Amino acid sequence: VGEEVEAVILTLNREERKMSLGIKQLKPDPWASITEKYPINSKHIAKVRNFTNFGVFVELEEGVDGLVHISDLSWTKKIKPPSEFTSIGEPLEVVVLEVDQENRRLSLGHKQLEENPWNEYENTYSVGSVHEGTVTALVEKGATITLADGVTGFCSNRNLVKEDGTTAKEGETLPFKVTEFNKGSKKITLSHTRTYEEIKREEAKKEAREKESEANTTQKAVRKLKDNLEKTTLGDISDLADLKSRLEAEEKANK
To answer: Which of 77, 197, 192 is nearest to 135 (CA)?
Structure first.
């Protein structure tokens, strides 16, 4: 109170003897050149000003604020609320995603500073691959499983059943098989049960193949034995016929 300030007259009503003044108008409007100073894909350091349920408001400079939507904070982490990710007053590196000069709005992102790891996850966590994971949270329909790199997947209750019949508990680390991968929705569906069920099926198939092989070997041996017996019998008959012929010839010669 009592401090003298310089101001710009914005409106003047002579009849009512009223005027409105502005101080910020003494400086150039930063939004007049917003697209030149903050082009799309440009990177900047902003200051966290406030939180909402849907994101983080940051200040790039005096008079220029922007919003980082909660979905643009991290590629892998599910952040609720945004205050789990950063704090008011903290610096936050951002990239400009969209500029609405007319409505004075900036859409910003933080996760876009890095390559989307889900492109690589698509190869690493392909359907059918097996990975070690830890049960980090139990919910009504299943559990959240944390894999390497901090990426998470979901395992339903029936797929949490272990080989001994018990259900996996929070904190347990077990092998999990990827049964579904959706890069678009960033979802990985997992199963521990299938890791040993399929091994059992493979072992059963192997055992069946071995039994079939043994049966085939036995059948071949039996056939070979029969062939040898038949050859031996035919040989004996031939020898007896030759002997008979020689005896008959000798008998005729002696007469």
So the answer is: 192
- Computed from CA positions of residues 106, 111, 117, 118, in that sequence, does the dihedral angle turn out positive or negative? negative
pLDDT 10s digits, 180-234 = 999 988 899 999 999 998 777 776 677 777 777 776 777 776 677 677 666 655 5
Triad 188, 173, 72: Cα angle to 5°: 40
Please write the tens of the pLDDT for every residue from 18-63.
Answer: 888 777 666 778 899 999 999 999 999 999 999 999 999 999 998 9
143-149's contacts with Cβ under 8 Å and 24+ in sequence apart are 143/168, 143/170, 145/176, 145/190, 147/176, 147/188, 149/76, 149/117, 149/121
Instruction: State both tokens at 95.
Output: 């990239």
User: Could you give the domains of the chain?
Assistant: 34-113 (2.40.50.140), 118-196 (2.40.50.140)
Spatial separation of the C-alpha atoms in residues 41 and 106, rounded to whole Å = 12
Question: Model's pTM, two decimal places?
Answer: 0.59
Q: Write the CA distances from 194 to 49, 87, 138, integer angstroms.
A: 48, 42, 19
